Structures are given as structure tokens and as C-alpha cells.
Amino acid sequence: MDGNNFILLATDTEPYTNDNTPLPASGSGAVWKYKAIYRLHDAPVGHWSDVISIAVGV
Question: Residue 55: how many CA atoms within 13 Å on its side-chain side?
Fold first, then answer.
């Protein structure tokens, strides 16, 4: 965790990263939040993106 309830999903050089986190239990839902930052030679560059929220549920 980074102190803001975010954990590292991936450091990726290709588009279309999948989040393989298990879905919430049947009949319930959750809101998953993501943010990103550009990296150059393994160092962050610029500022974090805005947070994107996605509602997930079964």
C-alpha cells in the first residue's frame, strides 16, 4: 500500500493490463480505483493521473 489505499497492480510496457483480482462475492459489489504514472528508466516521471473508479459486481 502507498498510504492512500493503493497497491501496485503492474509495471507494464504494453497496453491492456488485466486486473486478476477476484471479483466480489455473488450478490455484492465493490468500487475498484486506479491511478497511473509514467515511468522512464524505472523512475516515475510527472504527476499521478486522476483516480478512475470502476464499479464491479457479479
Answer: 2
